[in-house]
Amino acid sequence: PTKMSRRRVDTRSSLGPDDEVMPYSDDETDDELEEESSEGEEEAPERAPQPQVETRPTDVTWKVKANDRPYHQLPEFKKKVFLCIKKSKYSGNAIKTYKYNFLTFLPLNLYEQFKRVANIYFLVLLILQIIPEISTLPWYTTLIPLVIVLGITAIKDLVDDLARHRMDNEINNRKSEVLLNGRFQEAKWREIQVGDVVRLKKNDFIPADLLLLSSSNPNSLCYVETAELDGETNLKFRMGLRVTDERLQEDHQLADFNALIECEEPNNRLDKFTGMMLWDRERYPLELDNMLLRGCKIRNTDWCHGLVIFAGGDTKIMKNGGKTRFKRTKIDELMNYMVYTIFALLILVSAGLAIGHTYWYEAIGTKAWYLFDGKDRTNGYRGFLSFWGYIIVLNTMVPISLYVSVEVIRLGQSKFINWDLQMYFAEKDTPAKARTTTLNEELGQIQYVFSDKTGTLTQNIMQFKKCTIAGLIKPFSISCQPVDWSWNRYADKKFQFIDHSLVAHVRSKKDKDAMEFFKLLSLCHTVMVEHKADDLVYQAASPDEGALVTAARNFGYVFLSRTQDTMTIREMDQEMTYEMLALLDFNSDRKRMSIILKFPDGRIRLYCKGADTVIYERLSPSSKHKETTQTALDVFANETLRTLCLCYKDISAEEFEAWSRRHKEAQVTMNDREAALDAVYEQIENNLMLIGATAIEDKLQDGVPETIAKLAKADIKIWVLTGDKKETAENIGYSCSLLTDDMEIHYGDDVNEKLTRRQASRRDDPQAYRRGKKKTAEPFFPGSNKNALIITGGWLTDFVDMAFECEAVICCRVTPKQKAHVVSLVKKYKKAVTLSIGDGANDVNMIKTADIGVGISGQEGMQAVMSSDYAFAQFRYLQRLLLVHGRWSYIRMCKFLRFFFFKNFAFTLVHFWYSFFNGYSSQITFEDWFITLYNLAYSSLPVLLVGLLDQDVNDRLSLKFPKLYIPGQQGTLFNYKNFFISLFHGMFVSLIIFFIPYGAFLQTMGQDGEAPSDYQSFAVVAASSLIFIVNLQISLDTSYWTFVNCFAVLGSIAIYFGVMFDIHSAGIHVIFPSVFTFTGVASNALRQPYLWLTIILTVGISLLPVICIQFLSKTIWPSVGDKVRPLPVQQQACWSFSDLSA
Amino acid sequence: MVKQESESANRPDNTAFTQQRLPAWQPILSAGIVIPGFVLIGLAFIGIGVALFVTSKSIQELEFDYTGYSNESPCSSCAQSVVANCKCSLNFTLTTLLQGPVFFYYGLSNYFQNYRRYGASKDDNQLYGDLSYFTSPSSSCSPYDYDSSKKPIVPCGSIANSMFNDTFTLTWTVNGKTNNVSLDGKGIAWWTDYNVKYRNPNVTPLKNAFNGTVKPINWAKPAYELDASDPSNNGFVNQDFLVWMRRAALPNFRKLYRRIDASGDYKNGLPAGNYTVDITYNYPVRAFNGVKKIVFSNVSWMGGRNEFLGIAYLVIGSLCVVMSVVMLIVYAKFKFPDEE
Asked: Where is this region: Disordered (chain A) (predicted)?
């Protein structure tokens, strides 16, 4: 935090990061991305990749001239594209999101695919196989699987790209009206260029990033829906400059428009735009409010005109696209390391066998005249060739279809998440959505959940519940009868309030404070209003604001309309219009907003509402009711209500004039305009007079306490990160059972003390520290078994160790940036798997930082959802996502990987054993066609189905016994130990597969006297044993037998025999005599009972010990799953949790 | 109705598959299945083991090493000489009848027919009778594809070149009378090899097909003259050639040489008496410490004599039974712990 605070002091001098810094609500938008990314490198090098945000351009080099297409082709705007070919830096408006065209598909796609190490490996292998000296396996054994694997991926890419082609075409051919040659003509989007003037109608999509010039609404107001851009569905308004509004209404005026726009280069910041318009020698500042961004939709505006500033690929929405975050799961990493291990093993084994070959050839080979090959080679060189030969023979140890299969499984699991009816929120028709398909198994390993509070734990449906006016808490009296609003024709019928006296009080107009209170609520906000029929519909950026304005409306202060610089409200029965002199907007650092109004009688007054801490700092010494209001605020906080303080200030005309000048200067600053504005705002927001405070209730969502309790039982630590104040957060913690009565609560102050003590002891004993902090440190909280920590922002680095000892942690008053910091701290120090869940734009950072981000599609738009990996509508679905889908996915993936490695070891190592009996000559044990098809056809389907469908216990039990989740967190189902178990199991099976037939074949003959001990019969017996073993082993491992599994197992065995008898048939040999050389072997070998008995024994010895060991370990060390599973339904219901925790 | 549908347009399908509730059987390795299962499997394996072991014991097998390493060995002189068609003979006595049908094998030890390059050194197209491969054998046959004068070798390759060329005749001496035991060389190779995999070119006389080619370097006679007594037993479908070409899996192997013709005195097998095997000793194995054997054996339903499988079955079967007892004890101990 030292680093952080220093920076912050630099940038925003007046706001040090003290304990009392508190965001105004959770609904702030995050404008700190930039600092975040630059600091991230130093603070948390291991965090997930942050979205690339381009640095704020300081030089203004983007120049656009209205109605002057040739201007943009000037040489100074050319950039080098390729060698000496230059192109205008201004993109056309046609977009291209597709990757391939007809010609480039094959080379590009292959290039992309060969970027993967696994594919390159097999390509190299293929090349090795073509070299005749070392080609121990025919080329097709690798080519066929490789082509199939590449083909599947290519087809997937092709389908995706075709869809993109269609989309691009559709969009590029949309029509808009463009001003050409003095009049508006219909043109396709692809033909629009920078500097064109475009006319848009109601419900049109905006074709490019436009500067709003004028519209049919007064003051060139224009409403836009930004759903496609940021997912937020509430309408936003954009306003044209006054000068363009006045002078650019008619077509001919627009045609003569010749301003020069200077602004920043195209970038991906949706929340920033700085520019300047030069027109008739006047300079006008441009900001985001003047811009219509591509991807938005025009609403409630009959028509508007805009000037194209950025087109096509330069637009902000396109600049935002294509940034693919690449998250990898732990299993992914592990899997890669294992593939490297296998690779090392392969080289080692090959080298060993090559040395064996060298010595064998020395001892026997040179003397065996029949082996003479006419080549004059040293034995060492023969060994060297043999090394490569063995690399080829044993290549199947590295499983070629592993990556493709893993992708298929993950895709399937994602589909199951999307299909889950129990995560479907019927009220809003929102199913759960796995937006990333590569992380499913990580859902089964979550150790830490970081949750936002507002909108995530709560519904984010704000209700004005209470208030304090002039130090008095309202309501005093509580009656069960809700207030009747029939006296107020504008009242919102859904609004409920239970204090009749307050209403009467306000209606009597006797209480000046109460009148001022509601007047402020109806004036100080950024809500948009729509008149629908007779009703008023408010469009609020945050639900808090909506609730407050609605409350004011019901109490008789009705916000009616706004223009660029006026606001009209109805005060009880008389309509009043106020001139709006300035709007000092809200942001997460200011935590307040103000509005400066000129009353009809000429008075100038500033109204301000904001978080109590920031307001109290700026109150006038003469302000009354400070203590009483503070008491009221504490009372509200204890009731988990969200509070805001309201205050006003009268400003003299001179004072305002002086300030207004500074304000205007700040508005046209090109460098760091935001900071300049904040500083100016600071100058006027002081000496405020307190009116009172509001208290808003935000109800908990359904099932939140149960979900949190479940997750806690699954040993998932839940940290709530909220912008609320400490008391509110603590009470919410209790009400959602995050905090329980048996917990000892530690606040930031205790923590400070403990940390100081820890540091002191560390100084005294530096030796101990160096030996490793985590091991030598004694627990912070000796004796207490359950701890909870409530901590305020600014403490975040040092407390990590301490926090890990706690069952629950609540961080209050944290900014979005700090939220992300907490997550990366835990990731960094604990190496834990983290999940962040949130619903608002302020959670985006944390969602992107965590290993897994979950977005809740709630009241606050879709920004969180857009950056999340999984999205659903209710917090309570989290338990199903983790305890059911996550757990299943993890178990399935682990089972799949373990078995996949096993089956390839069992298959490949048979060659190894055979080597000792064939002079280490890289002779394969199986038929080459068997090697080709083994992974593709004979053994993959059953294990793939286990990866997709297996359930050790059903979803009901998974939820009922959260302890079942723990193996995933500990990663016990797939790690190096399991890998080596798979390796040894595979080795054991391959040993059996080789040596049982070896013993049986030694010096014997067939039932008809012909020798059966030929190589080809041996190959068939070993292969058949292998197929039976592998398919029966997966049957043993399948805990959820559906008809599909059954079909797959029997099918695989049937396919094996079917294909074998075909390949060994006379017919195919007649056609390809040198390709299929095993003619008649299957029929000859498999009609002998002796060889069947050999196969049965081989299968028996391979499987029986496994069953025995499984049974014994289940009996002696039963896992939780083993305990739960065999219970009949009745017993499951009444088995208490404590039985399992033992 | 329409409205309702549109309201829940995103509702996932409620099918057993999408909701992961496919009807399924969840097998559990419970004690009730595993322990009796092991007992049953164990007993079955013991049964099979006993059957195999008894059968194997009942098979009579006579094996004689005639390599001639030791000086007592009848063929020691032949083993040291390099003369072609060196003759030696081996005597043995049968005290009881060797129950027929009796098979006559030759065996080689320390002989790596499974060596990769050796195994690949043949031309399947040529052996399938494709004349175009007669003139240009596959390069896999190298160095036995062309002779020193660049003439193609047919059949090419190491396997063919190293064909076993010792020959044996068997005589039975009873009551001072010596009888030639008639040996049947028909049908000793696989049916599929004889009829499908190997074919002579469709040329009569067969000799003409081999025009312009030479015999393998180590061969005494060209392929079309392998069997002077039976013209149809020549070329690639010569039975001895087929037997040799089916290469062995392991470095110790036996190959069928002849059957004892079950007629006359030999209807029931080889009767008791003194026998002599006259060997034409050609095949050199001493260089690589190889061993040559001749074997007389009868067969049963399980084929030749091999005690390994029977013993393995007995061992595994007994282990199964033992393990089932162990599992029972462990199970009882952990599931119903003693009150003490």
From this structure: 1-57, 754-780
